[in-house]
Amino acid sequence: MSNPSERDQVFNEEIPKAKDFKFGANVANVFDDMVNRSVPFYEEIQRMIAELAADYAQPGSLVYDLGCSTGTTMANMSALLPEETRMVGVDDSEEMLKKCRLKLDHLCKENSYELVCSDIAAEGIINNASVVVLCLTLQFVRPLQREALLKNIYSGLNSGGVLILVEKILAENSAFNRPFIEYYYNYKRRNQYSELEISQKREALENVLIPYRLSENIVMLNRAGFTGTEVFFKWYNFSGLIAVKE
After folding, report:
1. Domains in the chain: how many in total?
2. Assigned domain for 167 exists
3. Total-model pTM
4. Per-residue pLDDT tens for 162-212?
5. Any bridge partners for residue 91, and if so which?
6. CATH code (residue 112)
7. In terms of residue numbers, what domain contains 152?
8. Dmax of the chain from CA atoms?
């Protein structure tokens, strides 16, 4: 469930020197198109997140989307969550939050959500949570901060609450990384991304998006305190996990 956005042409012209990828206005304006053309089965992943969130959302609790971007996940969850829950979207890009507000104002009841412009790794953001979503977000957090963030999430979750984590990942066996990446680039080619766009975006993301192996993410979740973890989605170098706080 996403509003129409401009066509993603952020990397369609040659850039003399690639800069690190940022979620500024130029990306916010085309983000919905970008993510739909760049993430395999994105709409199905969103449907699954909303379905899982609805099953675990507890009356009187908060449902968080960390790195909420333009609000697609929140919009999808809003249609299924119990009325007794309230959504909180957190993002450090005000440009993204502007798009998010426009989308949610058309879909959500008044006072059913709030948006917070903040670093998602900041302490004290999460409390009274039954569901926390990290959809393609943890991969952008500096590796040294990831375990601390997961521990903050665990601390802010109520008993029986869940973390829903979707990430780009590395293969368990490094020999599969190259073919999996090539299959992924083939996916982008099928969605009309040029070789120039693919290569320039890869360079821009190189120092910003740092993926882990699926097993490494599970180990981090265990260290944070989660005891029940299950994979609910897997496509080559993308995965979805749900982790329960008992």
Report:
1. 1
2. yes
3. 0.93
4. 999 999 999 999 999 999 999 999 999 999 999 999 998 999 889 899 999
5. 117
6. 3.40.50.150
7. 25-173+204-244
8. 53
